Task: structure prediction
Amino acid sequence: MSARLAYVLIGLVSALMLASLLIGPANVPPVQSLRALFLADDPLMALVMRELRLPRSLLAALIGAGLGLSGAVMQGYLRNPLAEPGLLGVSGAAALGAVITLQTGLASTFALALPMAALLGAGLAVGLLALLAGPRGGSLTLILAGIGVSAFAGAGVTLVLNLSPDPFAANEALFWLMGSLTDRSWSHVALAAPFILGGMALLATQARALDALTLGEDAAASLGIDLVRLRLVVMLGLASVVGAATAVAGAIGFVGLVVPHLLRRAVRARPAALLVASALGGAAMVLAADIAVRLIMPERDLKLGVLMAIIGAPFFLHLIFRHRLTQV
Amino acid sequence: MPQPENITATGLSVRRNGRDALRDVSFTLQRGECVGLIGPNGAGKTTLLRAVFGLEQCEGQSSLAALPASDRARCAAYLPQGRVIAWPVPVRDLVALGRLPYVERGSRLPARVADMVNDVLAQLDLSGFAERDATALSGGETARVLLARALVQQTPFIIADEPAAGLDPAHQISVMRLFHERAAQGQGVLVTCHDLTLAARFCARLIVLRDGKLVAEGPPEQVLTPQLLAEVFAISARVEATPQGLNLSQMDVLADLEGERG
Result:
């Protein structure tokens, strides 16, 4: 990644992080807000800044970075610009775990019951993937296994909603599925951060392997890349990042698909450089979207996942259209 | 690591879908020789190269496949038949991937790699392409860029699967001549090739495969007899020795001739 692009992206993330800290329903002037972050002379505002806005902003940046990186890894691994982190079915399984806790009332027994159940779902999905795809085999087997897990988890979610005796619980689950960062606390950060950061560190070790895969699997293997290990690391790292992100924020799509697309030209398509750029770009995108849901209809609690899809889908269509033009 | 003087394959066999794709093939590739691997489609040439490299599950031993992956990558470069370039990276960066085996984990490519890449691109007539997108090349340019990637690896051995396929005659000759020269400089080259005249001219030794078995091995003049061409390739051909090497005129397909006679 060129130094200029790095500066631009880091500047963008910093600016959005700051904006995210300063914008909220409390409507306090910026200087006072920032002051409350460090000094406790206004106890109420200090509470708002430290316990509400700061964890929310951090989560947005963390989740965005994780999903952006995961998308770049997935596209590099499959050598396909249409791949995205959700393909492995981990987010679907995490959602199933969450919906079950909402439906059974387990979610209200203690604060982290829902995200923990979601993580458990993600963990089970990885186990199932490993069983289905086996220790050897190419990327295609892994994706087919992922589609299977994804379909099963999706069916599970609809089944739970279908059999729900309580329309309020079903409604709550439906809203949760839309994805949001509203009212997330430090305990959410503490739960998700180790998985997201650990997963990202794991994925980053495979940068060289993804570069080599540009030449195809045989040539990469002949250059000394261990493809079996690559697959294992991709599977575990992705599950860790996506599982934790889904657990605390619900399903947030399109980041992993769109961000690597947006930045590919800027890094001249080098897969390893795209990893860092996509992590920064993802953080910027989720921060921006989370600011947008607070500015557009703040009273209606517009969901992050919905906004992302509304912006993402037309953008995706535009990409396909442009792709078609360059292909012909 | 001291580099080996030869690559030895002993009794390589591969079974695929209940059929012998390769049966008990043994050979040795010395440094300083250019060996051509020939045979009709489906004879097992690619399977043999992959087995020698350890990319194929097989019985038997290959001294190359026995090496740890990182040592193997510094001992031999492999140019696969399928010409894959997945992303529109600059040609220069794609070729530099050949230096990956020499880079310690996480560190950047040293600056002198740029010089190596420039040298190899110049050798292959590709100097003007360094900054182009690697996916925006013609078929022949793609083939040469990928060959450049294998050459920049600077290994004692090069194993190339159909490097000349799809090139125009001038580039076919220059690619084969380049392998010939690399052998003269001390590298060991194993190359598959469908153009028998080119193989005869630039390879000191030929290995002939048919139905997964090694059926002949030796200098081109001994191997490429009209009888062998009829048996292995099912063609009739006139073979002449010329000062430039063997000249093959491929005349007709034998099965068709018989069909017409019948």
